[in-house]
Amino acid sequence: MTQNGLVRSRGRILLLDDDADAVLFATHVLAAGGHFTVEHTADPSVALRAVARDGCDLVLTEADLPGLNCRELVTAMRQLAPRLPIVVLTACLQAGAEADALCELTDSYLTKPVPADQLLATVTRLL
């Protein structure tokens, strides 16, 4: 809390997702009560620019964006900001080398549909 009684945001979340319903849900859960400030984009290049300019405290990204290799995106983010917490959202994480590599590169992954309390707890723990 601030001195005037207002709740101070605990962090800036960059949400990278192209599903309007998922964006609305995550934004509502994370911003409720002023916990977090959420900025959304569906464009990986915009996300990379935000990471490069220290425009966020945590990235929450969908794993299966059209035309996007999530592993390459996460690798690029890690090069720009090695300590930036990155959480991957996925409907289903396929077993195999690609999935293992993605898990090693990220701080957490959540399977959709994500319960609100699990999303908030994961983000809170990482920040």
Q: Could you explain the architecture of this structure?
A:
This protein is α/β, with parallel strands linked by helices. A five-stranded parallel sheet has the order 2-1-3-4-5, sandwiched between helices. Helix 1 crosses helix 5, helix 2 runs parallel beside helix 3 and helix 3 runs parallel beside helix 4. The two termini are 16 Å apart. The N terminus is likely disordered.
Descriptors:
single chain, 127 residues, alpha/beta, five-stranded parallel beta sheet, 5 strands, 19% strand, disordered N terminus
Summarize the topology.
Layout: E1 12-16, H1 20-31, E2 37-41, H2 44-52, E3 58-62, H3 70-80, E4 86-90, H4 97-105, E5 108-111, H5 116-126
Parallel strand pairs: 1-2, 1-3, 3-4, 4-5
Helix pairs in contact: 1-5, 2-3, 3-4
Oligomer: single chain
Uncertain stretches: 1-8
Strand order of the largest sheet: 2-1-3-4-5
Structural class: alpha/beta
- Our Rg estimate from Cα atoms comes to 14 Å
Helical content (DSSP H or I, runs of 4+): 40-55%
* Biggest sheet features: 5 strands, parallel
The coarse overall form would be globular
What is the tally of helical segments?
A: 5
Beta-strand percentage range: 15-25%
End-to-end C-alpha gap: 16 Å
* Topology pattern, helix = H, strand = E: EHEHEHEHEH
Number of E-type strands: 5
Mean pLDDT: 87
